[in-house]
Amino acid sequence: MPRFRTRRINKLLIANRGEIALRIIRTARALGLHTIAVYSEADADSPHLAAAHEAHLIGPAEARHSYLNIQSILDAARAAGADAIHPGYGFLSESPEFARAVDQAGLIFVGPPPQVLAAAGDKVGARQLAQRAGVPVVPGTETADAATARSFAVLTGYPILIKAAAGGGGRGMRVVHDESALDAALQAAGREAQAAFSDGRLFLEKYLTAPRHIEVQILGDAHGRVIAMGERECSLQRRHQKIVEESPAPAISAQMRATIIDAAATLAAAVGYQNAGTVEFLVDGDNFYFLEINARLQVEHPVTELRFDYDLVAAQLAIAARQPLIEPPPPRGHAIECRVYAEDAHNDFRPAGGSVLYLQLPAGPGIRVDTWLAPAIEIGTHYDGLLAKVIAYGADRDEARRRMLAALDEFVLTGVTHTAAFLRDLIASEGFARGEFSTTFVSEFLPDWRPSDETFKAAAILAELAAQSGTAAPARRWNGAGAVSRRRSPWEALGDFSLWSRR
Amino acid sequence: MPRFRTRRINKLLIANRGEIALRIIRTARALGLHTIAVYSEADADSPHLAAAHEAHLIGPAEARHSYLNIQSILDAARAAGADAIHPGYGFLSESPEFARAVDQAGLIFVGPPPQVLAAAGDKVGARQLAQRAGVPVVPGTETADAATARSFAVLTGYPILIKAAAGGGGRGMRVVHDESALDAALQAAGREAQAAFSDGRLFLEKYLTAPRHIEVQILGDAHGRVIAMGERECSLQRRHQKIVEESPAPAISAQMRATIIDAAATLAAAVGYQNAGTVEFLVDGDNFYFLEINARLQVEHPVTELRFDYDLVAAQLAIAARQPLIEPPPPRGHAIECRVYAEDAHNDFRPAGGSVLYLQLPAGPGIRVDTWLAPAIEIGTHYDGLLAKVIAYGADRDEARRRMLAALDEFVLTGVTHTAAFLRDLIASEGFARGEFSTTFVSEFLPDWRPSDETFKAAAILAELAAQSGTAAPARRWNGAGAVSRRRSPWEALGDFSLWSRR
Amino acid sequence: MKFRELSSGRQVEVQLQQQGSTIQARIGGAVAQIGRQLLPDGAMLIEIGAVRVRAFAARAADSIVVSVGPHSFTFVPLKASRGASRSGLANPLVTAPMPGKVLKILVAEGDQVEAGQPLITMEAMKMETTLAAEGAARIKRIPVSEGQMIDAGAVLIELSPLDSSKP
Amino acid sequence: MKFRELSSGRQVEVQLQQQGSTIQARIGGAVAQIGRQLLPDGAMLIEIGAVRVRAFAARAADSIVVSVGPHSFTFVPLKASRGASRSGLANPLVTAPMPGKVLKILVAEGDQVEAGQPLITMEAMKMETTLAAEGAARIKRIPVSEGQMIDAGAVLIELSPLDSSKP
After folding, report:
1. Which end of chain A is more exposed for a tag (fewer CB within 10 A), N or C?
2. Which of C65, C128, C146, C149 to substitute to test the interface with A, most A CBs within 10 Å?
3. What is the pLDDT at residue C33?
4. B32 burial class (0-12, 13-18, 19+ CB within 10 angstroms)?
């Protein structure tokens, strides 16, 4: 049967941007593949271009004309002679149309086949599938017109959750706490869903007030083999988007862990899953509920990679080439990921933009940083604001947590408002150290969070120093032209410096 | 017995500089310790100062007045209220006098006790110890006056190897291929040994022409427990100093591996080893010979850390606090380290210095970079020229090797002549890929090594571009003062740029 | 100089008192000292209590951006006295916190609004954000319209104090 | 311009022919083209054959330092014609490759030396390095003495061609 012959991938186009494009390029280069980047006009200076062997412009800043533009991406693939396309996450990664178009263009789509994407992408259908497979789901509806919503709410009681049928990443999601807010929420969610997925359909679920969000990594090959490889705890969220993930999940019983991993494998087999994906669950006390299947590489995949010593992107490429799945070794140690966003934690995580004026990234034993940050680049607000994933690995949770704290202390980025300090304090909190938290933890922690008074005052003093620096000559260290002169910085304009630390 | 009570370490002084000072500080910070850096006048801008909680000047550039100055370091420890001192590697790390002085000052020395340091440091005595323990040693002498040398050479035949009795790191080591060179080599080696160790004593060994250099990590606690945790292959050397290390050692039999690890554990137990150390062996066909015990943390310790998921610095601190040894898990995967030196591979690895004018460090899955490189710092030639250790970890040797290649391709450092390109080509060589090499491999590979003609010509063209850039305004990105302007670089002065990659 | 920190909304007045190896500053009525050391890359090590932190500051378009370790701040210089502060209205301008699109304008010129009342909804990065009144005020002017693309900092609504009789 | 690359000793002459999105250069008698793209951090992507590499160049004191990926080069501009090249002696000056100390001077002024003959031993970073004659020559002058500390680039020995009768 031809379906079981392996295919060769030599030239890989990465239909994405930011940290995930760089991460995929790195594995592809290590595998000896020729890598092809694509970029929008807004990303002409973006580091993922420089990392690839070649780069192709696919359109203007607006995603639907570039990173969501199937034709433009296929044109670039044809021009570059690509034989495979990796979609990353977000953008077209879960689009059955895109997977089908790639296939029809004679190229390999590095992801699940279109019918699996369609099955997973239909959130309502996936709920039905789970029910048939005997996996519990959160009580809910299959549609969400105003009448259905009202009667569902009467039946289960508020709060209820509005979700997009084509959803993902928290878009089109709304919690409704009482009937007065219902209509406005339905309308806003519908608009958001329509804008994000070109599909305004919604459905409803009972809103669990303080569940844990736990998911399972799945992998399936072209030969019918499906495995589930460990869980990730993803309860720390803001705006229904994850900001901290870890593996293994702390404080769930061995039995719950086994049950969930089993359910994920069952569901993956039921949809004939191929390539990498994730099955998400909510855990509420002794109950667990299927949430959805994410038919793509997940943002938080590195925590699984570190625990299992297994390159998931390499596995995706091997599976796409129809090679048989390689069994991962048993897991070891503990990994935590913190997502640093260009957002203002003080103001409902409002998106921020700017230029990278100063950058120091963390490093050290057990620290991995997946990022597209680089000196002097512009951080726009056209796309998702993920700047960097700081991932800490340790022999146990305590070592990973302590390494993460030390790493976030090393994270210095000036020019863009970002969430590193918030994450640092979140990780330092007693609740996180105990591992006892639910999806409400971030919103409970947030209101009282603020920098120490000393930190604020020091910052104000530095602002005054910078304000007084006037027309100080620019730093000449990084000039790349002429002789290297001594550093000049705003501080220096203020007079004589002696080393404070020479005691 | 008071000896078995644990001691508490709160404030740790790191009596070292460069990458190892940063690496120790990172683990110490993650453990919640207060860290104290020391520095010479030449290192006033060195990154290890900024990484610690406080920093103390200990003397002028010359090491014997600063990093080798026991009194100055103890003064700093007293001023800072340190309760422990980690010596790193090199400098005072293997000095019994220093360990004794630290002890007498009422502080904890993070390393073996003085008597173990003395036993390991006496290379001739260590050979005798090995012989008594039934571990084979390379045929040799215990002294090296001219008469002894001549008669030893007559007996075993040339080449013979001159070594420093107090030696380490290739200092005071000379290969002598015929009698005419013997006297000059003995004198030069004696001078070098005297300068490096204040001890000019030498001894002789039969020179094995193409052995493998394989070493074993050992750990011993204050309660008499000693373990050997895996081997490292360190045959790739220039000037008798390692430049590439890996674990596990490729192409040795399981039996040889077990025999060597066993011999290391036996020797460690025989000297009553405490803290972290290394037992070095030469392997020649089916024979193996004890070489020496390095009673310190080794430069190449990260390859063991990655395979065993075990923080050796944390273990050193725990052992120094008299806690019982924690058993490492079984090893997993494969790790390779490449040492990037400020040296000119084209000219016998001559030391180089300069300023860091441009820097891009590698990153990505499985990549760890231990370095003190940072934008704009000065690289002097006062101390050892190690700039960075690029460490690649993978599920197997092939993945680690391919990740290393991709990582070295990402390594860009302008302003200091360095060895990254040489290492890249060494790792890419067929001999390395096969894992079949001995200590002669680097010197066999070196003569034919040079950049491709295309690379040389491209560099020359860029030199011409930079020469023509004249008085171009400096780059203003990193100025930290005034509004952020568009980049200016030498290239830009040359006229209109359009994106080459926009096809 | 007097600053407003944009994220927290905190106002602070700083006067540097002396330049030397230690920064002396009068801040919030007290005198603070910060040890400092210049680093080769243009950053600075500062000492806050017993802790040493890497810090950097630079002037951006209308503000000064400052990092103190992982913390990021944006300070906007304030004039010593301002019309708005006289009227008791903290900020008479509602500005766009990020670039995006005006989705819905929820008030009309002349309306009287309460503290917390939603004024305008904008969309950025496919998310909706609703801006609300910081205090009671009257809507003076709305210089944008629904559907309009706007830059960060663009004035969306001008407010006037309630005691002003003119709309 | 004509350069000597210090590590390899290779000499090369480069003339830029045109500025545009591609660098055109006349180098070693042939015309080479390099695609190029400026990066925000001041580096440049260049295209060598089908491979794209990150590169950077900067002028240091007397030389131009260049990185092409992990490769590092140091180019010293050469005058078009030079006294030394007339005499057939590639380099009439033996200079210190690194800072250090003069250990032993193995020749005397006026000595005639062979190619490869050791001239002077210096110590840097606790290692001895012996510098040898690149070709046959006569020792003209030795401006340093044993035990002297020297900077990188310091002239250690001046040579004169053999056909010169004056020492």
Report:
1. N
2. C65
3. 79
4. exposed
Position A162 pLDDT exceeds 60: yes
Among all residues of chain A, which has the CA nearest to that of D57? A480
Pick the residue from chain B with its C-alpha nearest to A362: B26
Q: From start to end of B318-439, where are the E strands?
A: 334-341, 343-344, 350-351, 354-355, 358-360, 367-371, 378-379, 386-394, 412-414
CB spacing of B482 vs A472 below 8 angstroms: yes
Q: Nearest CB to B496: which of D20, D35, D72?
A: D20
Residue of chain D nearest A53, judged by CA positions: D52
In a 10 Å sphere around its CB, with 0-12 CB exposed, 13-18 middle and 19+ buried, how is residue A208 labelled?
buried
Tens digit of each residue's pLDDT (9 = 90 or more) over B303-324: 999 999 999 999 999 999 999 9
For the structural domain made of A11-119, what CATH number should be given?
3.40.50.20
Q: Which of A294, A237, A313 is nearest to B365 (CA)?
A: A313
Inter-chain touch A408–C1, beta carbons under 8 Å: no
Percent of chain B with pLDDT over 90: 81
Note the pLDDT of residue A158: 93
Yes or no, beta carbons of D58 and A479 under 8 Å apart: yes
User: Among the ranges B485-499, C40-54, D18-32, which has the highest mean pLDDT value?
Assistant: C40-54
Which tokens is A482 given? 């002429």
Give yes or no for A353 touching B (CB within 8 A): no
Q: What CATH number should be reported for the domain whose range is B338-472?
A: 3.30.470.20
Q: Which CATH class is domain A139-206?
A: alpha beta
Which residues in chain D touch residue A53, judged by CB atoms under 8 angstroms apart? 50-52
Q: Going from the N-terminus, what domains does chain D have, and what CATH number goes with each?
A: 2-77 (2.40.128), 93-160 (2.40.50.100)
Residue type, B47: P
Of A93, A112, A86, nearest to A24 (Cα)? A86
**Which pTM value belongs to this model?**
0.85
Q: What integer pLDDT is reported at residue A487 of this predicted model?
A: 36
Closest Cα in chain D, distance from residue A354 (Å): 14
Looking at the domain B209-332, which fold is it?
D-amino Acid Aminotransferase; Chain A, domain 1 (3.30.470)
Residue numbers in B near A364 (CB within 8 A):
22-23, 26-27, 30, 370
The answer to whether B375 contacts A477, with C-beta atoms less than 8 Å apart, is yes
Residue B357 contacts A, CB cutoff 8 Å: yes
Enumerate the residues of chain C whose CB falls inside 8 A of the CB of residue B375: 40-41
How would you label C46-63 residue by residue, b for 16+ Cβ within 10 Å and e otherwise? bbbeeebbbbbbbbbeeb
Mean pLDDT computed over every residue of chain A: 90
The yes-or-no reply on C/D contact (3 CB pairs or more, < 8 Å) is no
Pick B480's closest partner by Cβ from C40, C57, C61: C57
- Enumerate the active-site residues of A: 296
Show Cβ contacts of residue A200 under 8 Å, excluding neighbours closer than 6 positions. Answer: A164, A190, A191, A193, A194
Cα C155 from Cα C97, distance rounded (Å): 10
Give the DSSP H or E segment for B302: helix B301-308
**Which residues of B fall within a CB distance of 8 Å from A368?**
363, 365, 367
Looking at beta carbons, which residues of chain C come within 8 Å of B52? Answer: 52
Section B193-211 average pLDDT: 89
Domain layout of chain B by residue ranges: 11-119, 139-206, 209-332, 338-472
Question: B402-430 pLDDT, tens per residue?
Answer: 999 999 999 999 999 999 999 999 999 99
Query: CA–CA separation, B354 vs B342, rounded Å?
Result: 9
